[in-house]
Each structure stands twice: as C-alpha cells, then as structure tokens.
Design a protein that fits this description.
The chain is α/β, with parallel strands linked by helices. The protein has two domains: about 350 residues, Rossmann fold; about 100 residues, GMP Synthetase, Chain A, domain 3 (2-Layer Sandwich), CATH 3.30.300. The chain has 14 helices and 19 strands. An eleven-stranded mixed β-sheet has the order 4-3-5-6-7-8-9-13-12-11-10, sandwiched between helices. The chain is globular, with a radius of gyration of 23 Å.
Length: about 475
C-alpha cells in the first residue's frame, strides 16, 4: 500500500496545476464554524445578497421574476423581502431550464447534472465545471470539513454502499482512477442487494480494510442485518456515514452494533452536496450555513419556529451558473433552538423527518411521519420484516407487509387497532401481504408514500409514483 504522504503530495500538486481552491476554502470554513451565531448569519447573508445581485444581472429567469415582484436586490434586502421571492421547484426548472443559466458562463464552462428522481421525475440542472469556477469552492470544502467533524482523515480508505454508477465517460473513469490512488475507494452498488451479493461485499470490505463506510440508510441496515445473522465481523471501521435517506433510530442502533462504531447522519443532495450533518456530539445536524441558506415553512408557507415540522427550502450560495433560490427540495424537517456541545456557531436541524410525501394524514387531521410508522411496525407488533404505507386519499391506507410466522391474526388485530386509534376510527385500512417490497431503481426503500401530504405541492402530488 502506498503511504498517505505521497498521496497527499499528488493531491496538492493536482489541485495546484488545475487551479482548484478547495483547500483554501476549507481553511476558511475551519474558521467560520467557530464564529458566533450572529457572525455566521452576517457571513451567510452577505453571500446570499451577492448571489441575488449576480442572479439579477446575469440570469434571465431571475431578472424577470424579481422585476415582476418589484424587488430591488442591488442595494440589499431584508429577510421579509427575501421571503417574497416565489419558491422554485422541479416543474419550474423543467419549464425554464435554459433561462436559469447565467449569461456569464460559456457552454464549455458548465456541465449537466441530474438527481435520482425521488418523486419519479428526475431533475436536470447545471453546475460549473470545476476548472472554470467563478464562485467559491465552499460546497466541496464543506463536505471535507464534515469529515473532520467526525475525526476522519480525508485520505482514509473509504467504502461506498451506494446507488449504481451509470453512463460514466472514459475521461471520468480516468479521473476516478487518479482519485482512487489519492483516496483509496471501494464502490459497491446498493442496487438489488441479496444474500449472495452481500456475502461477496463482506469479503471485499474485509480485504480492502476501509476506515469509513458511506451508504444509504436502508442499504446499510440491510447489510448490517446480513452480517449479524451470518456472524460476520468487519473490524477496524472508525465510523459509518448514512446519507441520501432518513436514518431511523432502529437502523442506527443495528448498524452501530454490527460495525462497533458510531453512525453519523448527513443530510445532503445531488443538487447541493452536504446541507447539514452531525458532529461527534450527536446533538442535531449542523447546517453548512456558509454554503446554503435553509428555511423551514409550514403548510401555509410561513416560517416555522424551532420544534415545528415543516418543509425544507434551500438556497444554494455556491452555484452561480444555475442558481437555486428558495428551492423546495421535497424534504421535511425541524429546526433546533439548542446549542451543540461542540461549541460551533452553525445553526442546527433537530432532525430531518423524511420526504414531503412521507406524511400520512389521519381522518382526525393528525400528521404521522415515517418515524411513527417505523416505531409502530418494529416495536408494537411481532412478525413484520418489511413494511410500506401508502395513502392515495384521506380515507384509506394501504399497508404492505412482509411477515414471518409470528405475525398471527391477533397481531394483525393489534396493528389495526392502534392505527385506528391514532389515525381515526373511520380510516379504511387494507393490509396486503407481500413476498417482497421492491426498492426504487436507485436501491432505496420507501417506507411511506402519501399523495395527500399537506407539504406536497400540486406538482408533487401529480408526480408521486407508487
């Protein structure tokens, strides 16, 4: 194995030749994280105002939009004025994609990117090619800083249990080989995990001997269950990082038990990279406030106070070529008003509860997120191996279950009783027994699907695929 020092040298040389500023920005973020809450807000707001000015000057969509609401961003605005800007969503982007590109960029300076399409409709957007960046490198630096929060070294061996890698060009594969020399990485697809595949993965990971494992929560949990059942030990893991899905407490406990290390939740997306994540104190998720401006809104579009559930709205402070301003990302979460014991001045998310289509509405008007259902199916009744709850209207729930022999008629009655007590006695509940609940095409498990969630837009309701 090549020692870490030559790899660091090659990486520094590569960044210097390419003119990258990631290390420079990382040094900045190492300082700003210790700013006071007010200093963080001041730094963040200055970046947001700069983004608005540049967007007005160079992005046709935003010039028209800001003029239509008579918002003058050239001389500074208040938070109340900022909230007058209409929300952005996938449908608006799809209809106005070319108008959302900054005229300051040549076609050769930007690249196409896509999301995995959690609502069934992929998002196609643009990013600056790294070597042409006119904005900062704070987004990438934020992810590297996140590793430091977990006391990891960026050059540690890493394993990814992730979605399939597709349509990678020869140049991309060549770059991957170089980066794999710098940061040795084992990529394992989470798609269609089965016992034979997980047996192979376990052998590969033991041979590779990584320090960090990254993965989808559901894939990590499924793999941990397999290792536990087969009494397979994978030693030497310093930490497991769960991202791209909501991490539930039962999943965290199993993964930590099997890998004998702490699990850290990262909230991020393809559009923005790391949005928020836990540190070693595990007292919430620190928002990368230097990189993103996060709002949480209630069903009426008003700001939520800490402790109240609402939909998460993101403004990307680091994408100048294709600005995301007040973007409805499709997630729901809760702000925290607590201070983390680590002492950082960055704001906290108490938790991310899941997708906007994860909220079931009872006939009594009460809301139930994925956390309620995972606790119910794992602790209240016996014999449920997998579940999925689907709501297409306000009077009926479809409950799909994969069961074992301990799920008796009495257990079924207990389940129906508690759902009726919580969601309304007049709720129609159809229980469907399944051999298997299929994953999404990107290897994720969707526990809850609601077409009438109060946080869904009309567009999301139309495009939520069952």
């Amino acid at each position: 194995m090549v020692s870490i020092f030559p790899r660091k040298f090659v990486h520094s040389l590569y960044e210097w030749i390419r003119g990258y500023k990631t290390s420079e920005c990382l040094n900045l973020l190492r300082k700003t994280q210790w700013f006071s809450e007010e200093e963080v807000k001041k730094f963040q707001w200055s970046r947001l105002e700069n983004l608005l000015k540049l967007s007005y000057r160079s992005v046709p969509f935003y010039r028209t939009l800001l003029d239509s609401i008579a918002l003058d961003v050239e001389n500074g605005i208040s938070i109340d004025e900022f909230r007058k800007i209409p929300l952005l969503n996938k449908e608006i982007i799809a209809k106005n994609r070319e108008k959302l590109i900054s005229t300051h960029y040549k076609p050769s300076e930007i690249m196409v990117d896509t999301t995995s399409g959690s609502t069934g409709k992929k998002l196609v957007f643009y990013k600056e090619k790294k070597r042409f960046r006119r904005s900062d490198y704070l987004n990438e630096a934020g992810s590297l800083r996140g590793l430091e929060w977990l006391e990891f070294d960026r050059y540690d061996k890493q394993t990814f249990l992730w979605g399939p890698q597709m349509n990678r060009s020869a140049i991309t594969r060549l770059k991957d080989r170089l980066m794999n020399f710098i940061i040795p990485t084992l990529f394992l697809s989470s798609y269609n995990l089965n016992p034979a595949m997980m047996s192979t993965y376990a052998k590969k990971i033991i041979s590779f001997n990584p320090k960090i494992i990254f993965g989808y929560a559901s894939a990590l949990f499924l793999f941990a269950n397999y290792l536990d059942e087969k009494k397979i030990e994978i030693l030497g893991i310093k930490g497991v990082v769960s991202s791209a899905e909501t991490l539930y407490q039962f999943q965290r406990e199993k993964i930590e038990k099997v890998f004998q290390c702490r699990v850290f939740e990262v909230y991020g997306s393809r559009e923005f990279g790391t949005i928020a994540q836990e540190c070693m104190a595990h007292q919430g998720l620190h928002i990368s406030a230097e990189n993103v401006f996060v709002e949480i809104l209630d069903e009426e579009g008003n700001p939520c106070k800490p402790g109240k559930l609402g939909k998460i709205i993101i403004t990307d402070l680091d994408n100048y070529c294709f600005p995301f301003i007040r973007y409805d990302i499709g997630d729901i979460g809760i702000f925290s008003d607590k201070k983390c014991g680590c002492g950082r001045g960055l704001p906290l998310l108490e938790k991310v509860e899941g997708r906007t289509f994860d909220v079931i509405v009872g006939t009594n008007g009460k809301y139930f997120t994925g956390t309620f259902w995972t606790i119910l199916f794992r602790t209240y009744v016996k014999g449920i191996e997998q579940f999925q709850v689907i709501q297409e209207n306000n009077r009926e729930l479809i409950v799909k279950l994969v069961i074992d022999d301990s799920f008796t008629e009495n257990e079924k009655k207990k389940l129906l009783k508690v759902i009726h007590e919580k969601c309304g006695e007049d709720m129609n509940i159809a229980i469907q027994l399944m051999d298997k609940i299929p994953l999404t095409e990107f290897g994720k498990h969707r526990f809850v699907i609601s077409k009438i969630s109060p946080f869904l837009t009309h567009y999301q309701q139309e495009n939520t695929i069952l």
